[in-house]
Amino acid sequence: MVGQEFPADATVLWYAVKDTCAQMEVKSAALGKVLGQFGDPEGQVFVELYSVQPGGNAIYDSQDINEGLFVMLTNPTASDAPAC
User: Fold this and answer.
1) With contact defined as beta carbons under 8 Å apart, do 64 and 80 qualify?
2) Across the chain, which distance is largest between two alpha carbons, in Å?
C-alpha cells in the first residue's frame, strides 16, 4: 500500500479517483524536514497513482497500481490538481 511508504505523521489532505488515475495531497512534518532542502519545508506533496497496461495505456485500478508520481506541488483541493 502506498500509504505505508509515507512517514507515520503523514496526513492525506484529499484523495480523488479520476478516469485514468487517483490523486492525493499528502502533508508530513517529517517530509518537510527532508524536502526543506529542496524548497518544501511544509512537506506537502502531490501524488498521482495509475496502472499502466500492456501497450502503454494508463488506467486506474486500485488492485494493480504499478506507477506513481510524487511532486513537490501544492494543490489545496482535488479540483486544483492537474488532469491525469
Assistant:
1) no
2) 39
Where does 4-60 show beta strands of DSSP type E? 11-17, 22-27, 44-52, 58-59
Q: What pLDDT digit, counting tens, does each position of 5-55 carry?
A: 788 999 999 999 988 899 999 999 998 998 888 888 888 999 999 888 888
Number of domains in the chain: 1
Going from the C-alpha of 76 to that of each of 12, 58, 61, 82, the distances in angstroms are 12, 25, 25, 12
**Residue-range definition of the domain harbouring residue 52:** 2-80
Interatomic CA distance for residues 30 and 83, integer angstroms? 28
The DSSP bridge pattern shows strands 11-17 and 67-71 to be unpaired
